């Protein structure tokens, strides 16, 4: 059942009401049953995998916490992490080479289980002894499709608080607002951009250079609209049950370099890999200086690439970002070194014109967006040959078609440009929106605002809306 389906919300409303009708521990039991029922709609067979994986990690967590010897703890941790990774690798390989259907959210709940084992290894007090609360952690249905990846301690703490909490009307309304905003971003912006891209993809060699350049930019804009829309829906559903999930985006199109972009884009995955992979790896390689740092960066980014799928396209995507990020880190490190050296020497400022900081930020943001869009050619394309064909067309190595923007009907081109503008505006932090919404709240009651949004969703949603891009990972 999709988060964009009206039937889902017909079921969700009474489900939330029943949740608050229960009290104490029964709330956690009910929410676990609800999460398993949601997952079973995808596949009852894969539900067994989720339960077995949860049970194994629960037992291993208890074993780690009870062990006194470091070797025993390391052994339990290694067994658990290796088993979970083996499951991910097996299904990713089957999906890439056998067109095997991946279990719903297997990567996302596996990341949760791995983080739990590592946290317990680091601190025995992080162990969760309540099996209901623990089993709910990987299975929590708003986050299981595509995250965001929540850490164990905040989730466990919130669940214990929720068991004793009464209905919070403000939190319910905030959750509703998140859901409504996410649905509009996904269905009115992301899906329309997706329909535009799909049309171009069917015969991209027929379109002009300008159309193709814009379409490549659309790859990034559509992915942002789709994934940020899903994230807001997931966060909103979680809020209805009293769970605050972690943010996943923070105005990524304001990023001034590719390092800054990854701090703002898919933040829960970036932070997860930073804490559990990059930081330990870079510490172990610190004796090798910059070479060790670059090695840690490259391994981290390549893992991000192949995590999406065991295909050449995703590998190239990871390698490109490894190169982009490595060059960025080296340049920023050199600039910082020169600044420190100039400060020690107390040299007078160099005469001459220097570009203002605002201009540098704009240029940096434009270059970062261009690099991100370039890498999205491989992320978006179904085959490596399709990606190289698009690259050849953009590079002038292959001829472009004759169909330009002026040849397209207005009902096709105008909505695409509007959606591109909306995605770029929201992804840049929606400047001025807070003041605008403040004025709107003073003049229009909430029920009218919600009614208008629901009306727009009902009349402007495209046919076939519902599939989230990150749902396949």
Overall description:
With 473 residues, the protein is mainly α. It folds into two domains: 161 residues, no CATH class; 193 residues, no CATH class. Helix content is 74%, strand content 0%. It contains 19 helices and no strands. It is globular and about 65 Å long. The two termini are 17 Å apart. The model has no long low-confidence stretch (mean pLDDT 90).
The percent range for helix content is: over 70%
Order of helix and strand elements from N to C terminus: HHHHHHHHHHHHHHHHHHH
Range of strand content = under 5%
Report the strand count: 0
Average pLDDT works out at 90
Topology:
Blueprint: H1 6-21, H2 25-40, H3 44-66, H4 70-98, H5 106-122, H6 131-139, H7 141-144, H8 152-162, H9 169-202, H10 209-240, H11 258-264, H12 267-284, H13 290-307, H14 312-345, H15 357-380, H16 384-395, H17 410-427, H18 433-443, H19 446-460
């Amino acid at each position: 059942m999709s988060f964009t389906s009206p039937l889902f919300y017909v079921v969700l409303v009474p489900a939330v009401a029943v949740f608050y009708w229960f009290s104490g521990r029964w709330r956690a039991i009910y929410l676990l049953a609800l999460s398993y029922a949601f997952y079973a709609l995808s596949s009852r067979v894969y539900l067994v995998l989720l339960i077995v994986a949860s049970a194994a990690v629960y037992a291993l967590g208890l074993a780690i916490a009870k062990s006194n010897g470091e070797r025993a703890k390391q052994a339990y941790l290694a067994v658990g992490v290796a088993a979970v990774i083996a499951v991910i690798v097996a299904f990713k390989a089957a999906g890439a080479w056998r067109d095997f259907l991946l279990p719903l959210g297997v990567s996302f709940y596996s990341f949760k289980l791995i983080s739990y084992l590592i946290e317990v290894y680091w601190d025995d007090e992080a162990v969760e002894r309540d099996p209901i609360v623990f089993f709910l952690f990987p299975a929590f249905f708003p986050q299981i499709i595509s995250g965001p990846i929540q850490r164990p301690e905040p989730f466990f703490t919130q669940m214990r608080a929720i068991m004793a909490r009464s209905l919070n009307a403000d939190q319910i309304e905030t959750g509703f607002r998140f859901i409504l905003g996410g649905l509009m971003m996904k269905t009115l912006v992301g899906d329309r951009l997706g329909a535009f891209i799909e049309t171009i993809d069917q015969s991209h060699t027929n379109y002009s250079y300008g159309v193709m350049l814009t379409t490549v930019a659309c790859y990034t804009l559509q992915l942002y609209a789709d994934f940020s829309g899903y994230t807001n829906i997931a966060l909103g559903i979680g809020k209805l049950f009293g769970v605050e999930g972690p943010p996943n985006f923070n105005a990524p199109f304001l990023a001034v370099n590719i390092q800054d972009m990854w701090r703002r884009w898919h933040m829960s995955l970036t932070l997860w890999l930073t804490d559990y992979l990059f930081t330990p790896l870079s510490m172990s390689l610190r004796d090798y200086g910059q070479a060790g740092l670059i090695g840690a960066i490259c391994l981290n980014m390549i893992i991000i690439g192949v995590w999406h799928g065991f295909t050449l396209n995703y590998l190239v995507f990871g390698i490109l970002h490894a190169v982009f990020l490595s060059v960025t880190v080296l340049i920023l490190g050199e600039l910082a070194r020169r600044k420190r050296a100039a400060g020690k020497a107390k040299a007078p400022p160099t005469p001459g014109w220097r570009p203002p900081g605002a201009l540098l930020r704009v240029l940096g943001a434009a270059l970062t967006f261009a690099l991100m869009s370039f890498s999205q050619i491989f992320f978006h394309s179904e085959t490596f040959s399709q990606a190289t064909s698009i690259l050849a067309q953009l590079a002038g190595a292959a001829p472009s078609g004759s169909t330009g923007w002026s040849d397209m009907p207005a009902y096709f081109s105008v909505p695409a440009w509007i959606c591109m503008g909306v995605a770029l505006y929201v992804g840049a932090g929606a400047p001025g929106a807070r003041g605008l919404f403040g004025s709107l709240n003073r003049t229009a009651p909430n029920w009218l605002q919600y009614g208008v949004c629901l009306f727009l969703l009902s009349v402007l949603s495209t046919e076939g809306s519902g599939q989230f891009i990150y749902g396949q990972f």
